[in-house]
Amino acid sequence: MKDLVTVIAKALVDNPDEVSVTEKAEGKNVTIELHVAPSDMGKVIGKQGRIAKAIRSVVKAASSKDNMKVEVEIN
């Protein structure tokens, strides 16, 4: 899941070198933290959070076949 979020985020931002993704697993629960440059924050969140919601939907769909609960946090 970490690689999926990294690829999506780097495609969206102007500074792909400043994208960092960390993954914390606790059993079947996984938390993915996405860090981007402050100037790229709006591009990752989108108007009314639409892009952030789409990222979370894609990750949720990809994790459902592994029977895991994944949460994406954008910092």
Comma- or semicolon-separated keywords:
three-stranded mixed β-sheet, 3 strands, GMP Synthetase, Chain A, domain 3, 75 residues, alpha+beta
Could you provide a short overview of the structure?
This protein is an alpha+beta fold.
Explain the overall architecture:
This protein has one domain (2-74): GMP Synthetase, Chain A, domain 3, CATH 3.30.300. 15% of the residues are buried. A three-stranded mixed beta sheet has the order 1-2-3, covered by helices on one side. The protein is globular and about 35 Å long. It contains three helices and three strands, in the order H-E-E-H-H-E. A hairpin with a 2-residue loop joins strand 1 (20-26) and strand 2 (29-35). It has helices at 2-12, 41-45, 50-64; strands at residues 20-26, 29-35, 69-74. It has 75 residues and is an alpha+beta fold.
Just name the CATH architecture: 2-Layer Sandwich
Instruction: Count up the domains.
Output: 1
The proportion of residues forming helix, as a percent range, comes to 40-55%
Strand share of the residues? 25-35%
Spatial strand arrangement across the major sheet: 1-2-3
Tally the beta strands. Answer: 3
Q: What layout of secondary structure does this protein have?
A:
Blueprint: H1 2-12, E1 20-26, E2 29-35, H2 41-45, H3 50-64, E3 69-74
Parallel strand pairs: 2-3
Antiparallel strand pairs: 1-2
